[in-house]
From TrEMBL, chain A:
GO terms for cellular component: plasma membrane. Pfam families: SSF. Its main location: membrane. It comes from Thermomonospora echinospora. This is Cation/acetate symporter.
Automatic annotation (TrEMBL), chain B:
It holds the Pfam family DUF485. The chain crosses the membrane at residues 87-106, 118-144. Residues 1-31 are annotated as: Disordered. Keywords: Membrane, Transmembrane, Transmembrane helix. This is Uncharacterized membrane protein, DUF485 family. InterPro entries: DUF485, MFS_trans_sf.
Length: 536, 167
C-alpha cells in the first residue's frame, strides 16, 4: 500500500470519528450556552488539551519545523514567542475574562460601556482576525495536499480547500462549541503522539545526544555553525537595522497577540469556573511548551537526516520538512514499510491539525457575528437565544463558504504573512481594549472603540504598505511597488499606537460608569455572578 | 447621618481558614465603635479619586450606600484581594516581558555572544531559548501556587458575600 492510500485511510478514520462525536455533541447542544461555550462543562484538563488543539496550527507544526530545518536557530524564535505569550493569557486575561464574560470577547468590553459601538468594533475585529488566520490555514491545506500526494493541479488544491471548508462547517454548525472542542482534543492527542514518536526516533538515532544532532544538522545544512545561531532568516546582516527592528516587531506581535486572539479567548468560557480556566491554561502551557520542544528536534532532525537541499526541493518554504523527516527516520529504523507508515501518519495528523484550527476560527467568528453584531447591534438585545443560535449556525455556514472562495482565489498568492498579521492585529487592537477594560477604572466606550479601530487599522494599513504586499519578488503583488513602510511586521508601531489610541479616546471622553466598574472588578476577581455551568 | 451604625455594612469575620485573609492593619482587630464619618479613605484601603470625593464617599458608604458590588469593592478584604492579585501579576508580567525582549534584542544585536558554544555544539542562543521555556513554566507554576494559597479562598469568601448581599 502506498503512503497516499494509507494517509487517506487514516484521515478518513479521523474524519469519521470526529463526525460521530460532532453528531453526538449536536444532540447535546440545546441552548446558547451549549452552542457558544460547550455548556461550560469541560474540565480544566480537557480544555487545556483543546487549547493546545486550537493553538498548534499547521503553521506551528509544519511551518516552524520547516523554518528550523532551513534556517536553523531562527525558527526557534517563533516557538518561544508563541509559548511565552501564554503567560499574558494566564496572568492577566483568562480568569478575569471567565468571570466577567459570557460568550465572546466583546462581552467583557461591553460590560461597563455603551454596548452597540463597542460590540460593533469588537465584532469587526474578531471577524477580521479570524478570516486572516482562516485564509492562511485554508491555503496551507491546499498546498499540503499537493506536497503530500503529488497533486499539483489547481483543481486538486481547490478540491482540498472545499473539503476542508465543508468539514469545518459541519463541525461548527452541527456540533457547536462541544463538537469543536472534542475535535481539538482528539487532534491535540494525535499531534502530540505523532510528534513525540518521530522525536524519539530521531533522538534515538543520535544516541539521545543533542550536541551530536546539532553537529549533523549544521553540517548537512551547508551553513556550518551559523545554522545554530540567530541571523539566517530574521535580521540577516544584509537587512541591516530594518531587519533587526523587524525582528523586534515580530517578537512583540507573537508575545502580545495570543491573549487577543478571539478563538483563543472564547476557550476560557468552556469551563465551569475561573479556577478551571487557570487550570486549563496551565495544561495548555505544558502541552504547547512540550510541543515546541519537540518541533525543535524535528526541525534540526530534518536538517540532519533529510538535508536542507532536499527539503527546499520539495517546498521552498520548508513546509514538508516534518513529513519528509517522518518518512526518512521511519525508513532508517523500521525499513521501507516503516517509512511509508510514518509518513502517512504524520500527513494525516497534519490534516487533522488544520481541521481543528479552522473549526475554532469559524466558531469564534460566527459566535461574534451572531452574539455581538446580530443580537446586540442589529436587534439591540431583543433576540431570543433560539434566534441567536440559528443566526450563529447560518453565519458559520456563510463565513465558511466565504473562506472557501477566498481560499481558492488566494491559493496562488503568498499569504503566509497573514498569520503574523492576525497576531499583530490581535496585539494592537484587541489586547489594549481587553487589558484597559479589566484593569483601568477610567476606561470608557470612546477608549475601547479607539483602541480597536486604531490598532486594527494601523496594523492592516502598515502591512498594505509593507514589502510583503508590494515591491519585492516575494510580495503578494509582485508587479507594483507602493511599499513605503520598511518593515514586514507592523507590531512595533501598531501595538503602541493601539494602546495610545485607547488612552487618548478615554481621556477625551467624560463617560465613566463607577457602578458598573465596581461590579466588573468585584465579579472578575471573586467570581460572584459568573455564568454557571449548564446543568443538563 | 452623623454616625454609621456598623463599620462597613458588611460582615467582618475572618475569612480564610488559614487566617491569612484578614483586613490590612493588624491581625486581631477589636470590635470598633461607631466610626466618625470623616475617617480618611486610605484607612479603608480606598483610593480616593479626588480630595473632595474622598470623605463624601466614605460617609455615604459606611452603612448601606451603593450597590452590593460597590460595598464589597470598598471593603478592606476586597482591597486586599486586589492588592495580592496585582502584587503578583504586574511584577511578573514586567519580568517575563523584559526577559523575553532581552532575548529577542540579543538575537538581533549580540550575535557573537549568542553563538558562543558552551557544551559541544550547544551554544548560548540555544540555552537562552531553552531558559525561556524554563522561566515560562516556572512563572506559571509560581502563579498557580500563589493563586491557590492566597487568592482562591479570599475570592470564594467575597464572592459568597456579594451573592448573599444581592438577595
Amino acid at each position: 500500500m502506498s503512503h497516499e492510500t494509507l494517509a487517506v485511510l487514516l484521515f478518513l478514520a479521523f474524519v469519521g470519528g470526529t463526525l460521530a462525536i460532532t453528531v453526538w455533541a449536536g444532540r447535546n447542544t440545546k441552548d446558547a450556552s451549549d452552542f457558544y461555550a460547550g455548556g461550560r462543562s469541560f474540565s480544566g484538563v480537557q480544555n487545556g488539551l483543546a487549547i493546545g488543539g486550537d493553538y498548534m496550527s499547521a503553521a506551528s507544526f509544519l511551518g516552524i519545523a520547516g523554518l528550523i530545518a532551513l534556517y536553523g536557530y531562527d525558527g526557534f524564535l517563533y516557538s518561544i514567542g508563541f509559548l511565552v505569550a501564554w503567560l499574558v493569557a494566564l496572568l492577566l486575561v483568562a480568569e478575569l475574562m471567565r468571570n466577567s464574560g459570557k460568550y465572546t470577547m466583546a462581552d467583557v468590553l461591553a460590560f461597563r460601556m455603551s454596548p452597540r459601538p463597542v460590540r460593533t468594533a469588537a465584532g469587526v475585529s474578531t471577524i477580521t482576525v479570524s478570516i486572516f488566520y482562516l485564509l492562511a490555514q485554508m491555503v496551507g491545506a491546499g498546498a499540503l495536499v499537493a506536497l503530500l500526494f503529488g497533486f499539483t493541479s489547481d483543481f486538486a488544491k481547490g478540491a482540498t480547500i472545499v473539503l476542508v471548508g465543508a468539514l469545518m462547517i459541519v463541525y461548527v454548525v452541527v456540533g457547536g462549541m462541544k463538537g469543536t472542542t472534542w475535535v481539538q482534543i482528539v487532534k491535540a492527542i494525535l499531534l502530540m503522539t505523532g510528534a513525540t514518536l518521530v522525536t524519539l526516533l530521531v533522538l534515538g538515532k543520535f544516541g539521545f545526544n543533542l550536541s551530536t544532532l546539532l553537529r549533523d544538522a549544521a553540517e548537512q545544512s551547508g551553513k556550518g555553525d551559523a545554522f545554530l545561531e540567530p541571523g539566517l532568516r530574521y535580521a540577516t546582516e544584509a537587512q541591516g537595522l530594518s531587519g533587526k527592528l523587524d525582528l523586534i516587531s515580530l517578537g512583540l506581535a507573537l508575545v502580545l497577540g495570543t491573549a487577543g486572539l478571539p478563538h483563543i479567548l472564547i476557550r476560557f468560557y468552556t469551563v465551569p469556573t475561573a479556577r478551571d480556566a487557570r487550570k486549563s491554561v496551565l495544561w495548555g502551557i505544558g502541552i504547547i511548551g512540550a510541543f515546541y520542544l519537540l518541533t525543535l528536534v524535528l526541525g534540526f532532525g530534518a536538517a540532519a537526516l533529510v538535508g536542507s537541499d532536499e527539503i527546499r526541493k520539495a517546498n521552498p518554504a520548508g513546509n514538508t520538512a516534518a513529513p519528509q523527516l517522518a518518512e526518512r527516520v521511519g525508513e532508517i529504523v523500521f525499513g521501507d514499510v516503516g517509512g511509508t507508515i510514518l509518513l502517512a501518519v504524520i500527513a494525516a495528523v497534519a490534516f487533522a491539525t488544520i481541521l481543528a484550527v479552522v473549526a475554532g476560527l469559524t466558531l469564534a467568528s460566527s459566535s461574534s457575528f451572531s452574539h455581538d453584531l446580530y443580537a446586540h447591534v442589529f436587534r439591540r438585545g431583543q433576540a431570543t437565544e433560539k434566534e441567536e443560535v440559528r443566526v450563529a449556525r447560518i453565519s458559520a455556514f456563510v463565513i465558511g463558504a466565504v473562506s472557501i472562495v477566498l481560499g481558492i482565489y488566494a491559493q496562488r498568492l503568498n499569504v503566509a504573512f497573514l498569520v503574523a498579521l492576525a497576531f499583530a492585529v490581535a496585539a494592537s487592537g484587541n489586547l489594549p481594549a481587553i487589558l484597559y477594560s479589566l484593569f483601568w477604572k477610567r476606561f470608557n466606550t470612546a477608549g475601547a472603540v479607539a483602541a480597536i479601530y486604531g490598532g486594527l487599522g494601523s496594523a492592516v494599513l502598515l502591512v498594505v504598505f509593507s514589502p510583503v504586499v508590494s515591491g519585492s519578488d516575494k510580495a503578494l503583488f509582485t508587479g507594483a511597488d507602493f511599499s513605503f513602510f520598511p518593515l514586514e511586521n507592523p507590531g512595533i508601531v501598531s501595538i503602541p499606537f493601539g494602546f495610545l489610541c485607547g488612552w487618548l479616546g478615554t481621556v477625551l471622553s467624560k463617560e465613566h460608569n463607577a457602578e458598573k466598574y465596581a461590579e466588573m472588578e468585584v465579579r472578575s476577581l471573586t467570581g460572584a455572578g459568573a455564568e454557571p455551568a449548564a446543568r443538563h | 447621618m452623623p454616625f454609621a451604625r456598623s463599620s462597613y455594612g458588611i460582615d467582618r469575620s475572618p475569612m480564610a481558614a488559614d487566617g491569612s485573609a484578614q483586613a490590612p492593619g493588624g491581625s486581631a482587630q477589636p470590635a470598633r465603635g461607631p466610626l466618625h464619618v470623616a475617617v480618611p479613605a486610605f484607612y479603608l484601603g480606598v483610593t480616593p479619586v479626588t480630595a473632595e470625593e474622598d470623605h463624601v464617599t466614605v460617609e455615604k458608604d459606611l452603612d448601606r450606600g451603593g450597590t452590593p458590588y460597590e460595598r464589597v469593592q470598598r471593603s478592606p478584604e476586597f482591597q486586599e484581594l486586589r492588592r495580592r492579585f496585582r502584587a503578583f501579576v504586574f511584577p511578573a508580567t514586567v519580568a517575563f516581558l523584559t526577559w523575553y525582549l532581552l532575548y529577542v534584542v540579543l538575537s538581533g544585536w549580540a550575535r557573537g555572544f549568542m553563538g558562543t558554544q558552551i557544551v559541544g555544539f550547544i551554544n548560548v542562543a540555544l540555552i537562552f531559548g531553552l531558559l525561556q521555556f524554563v522561566s515560562t513554566f516556572l512563572i506559571a507554576w509560581l502563579y498557580a501556587r500563589h493563586a491557590e494559597a492566597k487568592l482562591d479562598p479570599m475570592a470564594a469568601e467575597l464572592g459568597a458575600r456579594v451573592e448573599g448581599e444581592g438577595k
